[in-house]
Design brief:
Elements: H1 12-18, H2 22-39, H3 42-58, H4 62-79, H5 84-90
Length: 91
């Protein structure tokens, strides 16, 4: 299991974030973004963008975090996610 970092039910950016390894969380988020674009996973675009917002928030860049969270809201709405309003409320 790669030292517990990956495995079923363990989104890598969140595990890296829980370990406060922001560099690893950024790297995993970037890799996820590449896959999202390659395979055109519409709802996942919002999740990757939300990870970016979370990373900006944790790094103390609240202005960037807010900008990214608003972008997330639009991406999730555009994806047609049934739970879009709930996801946006949590962000």
């Amino acid at each position: 299991m790669n030292g517990g970092v990956t495995g079923p039910g363990r989104p890598v950016p969140y595990v890296a974030g829980a370990r406060v390894d922001l560099a690893a969380a950024r790297e995993h988020t970037e890799r996820a973004g590449i896959l999202v674009e390659r395979y055109r996973w519409r709802q996942s675009r919002g999740i990757v963008a939300m990870n970016g917002g979370m990373l900006a928030h944790v790094a103390g860049d609240l202005e960037l975090a807010e900008k990214l969270y608003w972008q997330v809201a639009e991406l999730i709405k555009q994806s047609g996610a049934v739970d879009a309003e709930g996801i946006i409320a949590v962000a």
